[in-house]
Write a sequence for this structure.
């Protein structure tokens, strides 16, 4: 089929988790005969076992489909599948910017959820043509009328535009394909312009280097031409271009409006940044495509191998993981207590869980992970700003003017009768409610501003608990805000232990300090001398516990005789314990650190 831009349609599917996005993609692939029945499996575009088990898309996958419409014309449909979690919202926004339209999938039984609202806003910000799709209409508890009302009132989407489908049975999917052809516009283009291609994802291949997923906005790209990445200025020679149908299919060139891949002997995945613009090295574009930003990790945790002999294995495993996930960062770290490890940065808590599970599953590496923390911005008295992700890097108190913590705006949907329980949970986490809006007579959407530090630990679990599983949440990062944050230190016999230090709000410091001291008293074994466990803020002790010494009966060998014989032995024992306390070190077992890391 010759290149005809009027026959191109670029679209994406966006939905709340478990609303049937991957199943709908399966039906589209089957109906357009992109895959034959022998190759087919459920959740075809989800490659990882982890994706299929959890029912979420972690890595986006573009696929090119041919569709013979009822008007007799054959159309090229480029489906850009997107990740399905708030942690990957930037990748979703870049994938959407490569499209002209989106299918907004809503579960007919569950209705509009928090992520549905966020995805609708993302589509509006990118100026996309939105086709609302009411899925799972075959379910006995499907309420199509109510879902249409929610589309109009919550999302301001005309209900008559909505298409009712069942991705599982295939009902209504052909009508949906006709709607894609008729309602999503072809890509705008102009001949003879400079090359500008948007990078919306990448994949690392051991033999061929980084495979870059692109949408061409202007110009053409073909083998043997020199290209330049505009964010870094690095140049490479193109070796192969093509598209996925669904497997990589080489082509002579990629034209404006097309979606495909470029292989250019890029050896380091860190060179390729999602949202970057590719242009010609000989005739570079004057301006990059809008919307690019450097991905910043928001959640940090330290990974240590369970045994020191596993360090090199952990290092090589992290390196291989980073090749396929440039948004994940790590750097070497050394702890007095846990030895050599790595300080890792993640986009969010789910991202951290996925990396941790992949390390244990795919690379068979056992790790100890520290309690997740966030990045803090510290304003010094000389006016400079420093960002820290580890309490050990905190400047001295005399230098600090102000500590700022990251804030998020959370959109939470809950049943009406659970509003008070949610308000109580948000107040415990230092959140403030900024907006309340009714979705229907049963549910409301509440908007909160919360510190990210209060969310990364167990907020989502607590939300599901207090709402009996009916609550759903989506959030966006809104910046740093001044806060009364302090560093909580743990001292053992007046010696600080860096591995136990963490940042906490002053109002919660005393409770957390007591909790930690009590836990340590239980897990630190008795020594031959008294061990004082203290929690301190700014050199002020706020909690104290004691591990009593082992008592050895030094008088056991005395059978009768004068009491002075026993007193002489007791005095000698006291002197020995005083000396031991001066020179002895507290032996902290490895499991003590693991227990404390489970504290939250």
């Amino acid at each position: 089929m010759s290149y005809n831009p009027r026959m191109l349609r670029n679209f994406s599917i966006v939905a709340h988790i478990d609303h049937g996005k991957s199943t709908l993609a399966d039906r589209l692939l089957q109906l357009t005969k992109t895959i034959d029945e022998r190759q087919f499996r459920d959740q075809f575009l989800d490659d990882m076992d982890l994706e299929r088990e959890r029912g979420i898309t972690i890595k986006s996958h573009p696929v090119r489909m041919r569709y013979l419409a009822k008007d007799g014309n054959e159309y090229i449909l480029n489906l850009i599948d997107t990740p399905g979690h708030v942690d990957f919202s930037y990748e979703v926004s870049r994938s959407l910017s490569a499209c002209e339209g989106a299918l907004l999938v809503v579960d007919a039984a569950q209705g509009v959820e928090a992520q549905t609202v966020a995805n609708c806003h993302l589509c509006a910000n990118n100026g996309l043509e939105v086709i609302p799709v009411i899925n799972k209409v075959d379910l006995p508890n499907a309420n199509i009328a109510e879902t249409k009302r929610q589309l109009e009132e919550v999302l301001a989407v005309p209900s008559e535009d909505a298409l009712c489908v069942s991705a599982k049975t295939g009902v209504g999917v052909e009508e949906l394909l006709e709607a894609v052809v008729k309602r999503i516009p072809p890509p705008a283009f102009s001949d003879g312009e400079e090359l500008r291609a948007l990078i919306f994802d990448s994949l690392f291949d051991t033999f061929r280097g980084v495979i870059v997923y692109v949408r061409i906005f202007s110009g053409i790209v073909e083998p043997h031409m020199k290209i330049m990445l505009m964010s870094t200025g690095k140049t490479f020679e193109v070796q192969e271009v093509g598209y996925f149908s669904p497997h990589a299919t080489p082509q002579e060139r990629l034209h404006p409006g097309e979606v495909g891949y470029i292989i250019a002997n890029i050896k380091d995945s860190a060179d390729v940044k999602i949202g970057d613009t590719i242009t010609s090295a000989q005739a570079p574009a004057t301006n990059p495509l809008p919307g690019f930003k450097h991905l910043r990790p928001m959640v940090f945790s330290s990974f240590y191998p369970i045994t020191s002999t596993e360090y090199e294995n952990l290092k090589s495993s992290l390196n291989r993981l980073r090749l396929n996930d440039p948004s994940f960062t790590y750097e070497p770290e050394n702890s007095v207590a846990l030895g050599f490890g790595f300080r890792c940065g993640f986009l969010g808590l789910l991202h951290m869980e996925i990396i941790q599970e992949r390390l244990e599953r795919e690379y068979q590496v056992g790790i100890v992970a520290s309690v997740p923390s966030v990045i803090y911005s510290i304003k010094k008295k000389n006016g400079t700003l420093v960002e820290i992700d580890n309490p050990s890097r905190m400047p001295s108190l005399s230098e600090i003017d102000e500590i700022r913590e990251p804030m998020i705006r959370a959109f939470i949907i809950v049943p009406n009768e659970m509003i008070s329980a949610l308000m109580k949970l948000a107040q415990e986490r230092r959140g403030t409610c900024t907006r309340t809006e009714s979705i229907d007579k049963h549910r409301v959407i509440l908007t909160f501003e919360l510190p990210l530090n209060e969310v990364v630990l167990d907020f989502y679990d607590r939300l599901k608990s207090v709402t009996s599983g009916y609550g759903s949440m989506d959030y966006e990062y809104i910046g740093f805000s001044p806060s009364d944050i302090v560093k909580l230190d743990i001292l053992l016999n007046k010696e600080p232990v860096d591995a136990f230090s963490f940042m906490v709000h002053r109002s919660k410091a005393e409770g957390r300090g007591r909790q930690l001291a009590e836990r340590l008293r239980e897990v630190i074994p008795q020594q031959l001398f008294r061990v004082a466990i203290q929690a301190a803020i700014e050199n002020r002790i706020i909690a104290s516990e004691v591990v009593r010494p082992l008592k050895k009966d030094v008088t056991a060998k005395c059978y009768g005789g004068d009491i002075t014989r026993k007193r002489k032995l007791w005095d000698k024992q006291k002197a020995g314990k005083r000396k031991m306390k001066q020179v002895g070190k507290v032996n902290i077992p490895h499991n003590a650190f693991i227990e404390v890391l489970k504290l939250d």
